[in-house]
UniProtKB/TrEMBL annotation:
The keyword Transport does not apply. One of its GO terms (biological process) is translation. A zinc finger (C4-type) spans 40-61. This is Large ribosomal subunit protein eL43. Keywords: Metal-binding, Ribonucleoprotein, Ribosomal protein, RNA-binding, rRNA-binding, Zinc, Zinc-finger. Gene3D superfamilies: 2.20.25.30. Part of the 50S ribosomal subunit. Its cofactor is Zn(2+). It comes from Huberarchaeum crystalense. InterPro entries: Ribosomal_eL37/eL43 (IPR011331), Ribosomal_eL43 (IPR002674), Ribosomal_zn-bd (IPR011332).
Length: 73
C-alpha cells in the first residue's frame, strides 16, 4: 500500500484564520515581525510602543521620538 503525501503550503500565523487571502495575511505577518524588534534610540531598551503613525514611546525611559511607520529606524 502506497500512501501519497500531499503538498502543504507555508502557514502564516495571524489572527485572521482563512479570511482575507494569503497575500494580505503574509504582508500583515511581515509588518508584525518588524514591530516586535524595535529598540529605543535613547536607552536601547526593547519595549517601544507606537503611539501614532511614526511616533514611538519607550516604556522604560519615557522618551518619545519619531521614526518610520512600522519601525523605529
Amino acid at each position: 500500500m502506497v500512501i501519497k503525501k500531499t503538498r502543504t503550503s507555508k502557514k502564516t500565523r495571524t489572527s485572521f484564520g482563512v479570511r482575507y487571502g494569503f497575500r494580505l495575511r503574509k504582508k500583515y505577518a511581515a509588518v508584525k515581525e518588524k514591530t516586535k524588534s524595535n529598540v529605543c534610540i535613547v536607552c536601547g531598551h526593547n519595549k517601544v510602543k507606537r503611539v501614532s503613525l511614526g511616533i514611538w514611546l519607550c516604556k522604560k525611559c519615557g522618551a518619545k521620538f519619531a521614526g518610520k511607520a512600522y519601525t523605529t529606524q
